[in-house]
Amino acid sequence: MKNFIIIVCVWFAAMSCAPPPPPDTSAFDEGVAKFNVNVEIVDATFNLFENGDLDGMIANYADDLIWSPPNTSDSLSKEVLAEGMRGWHAEFENFTFRDRQYYPGVSEGDYIPDGGVRVYGVWDFTHKATGKVLSQKYYAVLQCNDEGKIVADLEWFDQGGIFDQVEE
């Protein structure tokens, strides 16, 4: 019996020193892989806006898009997004989105990459009527579906500050 107790104690001691099993990284790796695909879609969408290809840009959005621009807390449609982007191009030109930084979105609670894209950057553009060159910091959170279309676009920037710059 004494030998059995010693064997059990040695076994427990050995097991407590063993490293824990590796975490399941499949969900993490899958989220990072989705992010890498989606960041290309998002980046291309910004490039299309910069280049004035609004039809190409809008084609990157799903028909059931949820768009939340900075001037509202409502969820707006793809059609309203298209109208808004045409409005920006009607009033401004020479769009450049510089200092782009892309980070993965994460799931709530466990903070595992979920394929979402968070983007920071600075928009530079010229007001057509006054010729003033303007600059605006920008942040957005975007989600894409499995078909490679943007299904959610939540944006934050100081829209009023843009028009304050025009009036200066």
UniProtKB/TrEMBL annotation:
SUPFAM superfamilies: NTF2-like. Residues 42-151 form the SnoaL-like domain. Gene3D superfamilies: 3.10.450.50. Pfam families: SnoaL_2 (PF12680). This is SnoaL-like domain-containing protein.
